[in-house]
Amino acid sequence: MVLTWQAIARTIRGNQPTLVRFIDATWAPNLAQKKAETEKDSLLKGFKYVLQPYFGN
């Protein structure tokens, strides 16, 4: 997660608009196969789980 965040943060520095898209099936393999995702098999769900306390929802 740290390397991903570092790459995103580099584009945000200087108050620049940033759009991040995760389009490779490696991020969410079950979703690519139209199956349910969990924190254990999806990097995106795992990121959401870990970061949830910082976003209030």
Helix content: 40-55%
Element order: H for helix, E for strand: HHH
Determine the N-to-C terminus distance.
20 Å
Beta content comes to under 5%
Shape: globular
How many E-type strands? 0
Which secondary-structure class do the elements indicate? mainly alpha
Low-confidence stretches: none
The whole-number mean of residue pLDDT values reads 81
Q: Provide a count of the helices.
A: 3
Main beta sheet strand tally, sense and closure: none
Rg, alpha carbons: 13 Å
List keywords for this structure.
57 residues; mainly alpha; 3 helices
Report on the architecture of this protein.
Helix content is 42%, strand content 0%. The mean pLDDT is 81. It has 57 residues and is mainly alpha-helical. The longest helix has 11 residues, at 2-12. It is built from 3 helices and no strands. The chain has a domain at 19-57. The protein is globular, with a radius of gyration of 13 Å.
What does the secondary structure layout of this molecule look like, with pairings?
Blueprint lengths: L1 H11 L16 H4 L10 H9 L6
In short:
This protein is mainly alpha-helical. It is built from three helices and no strands. It has a domain at about 20-55.
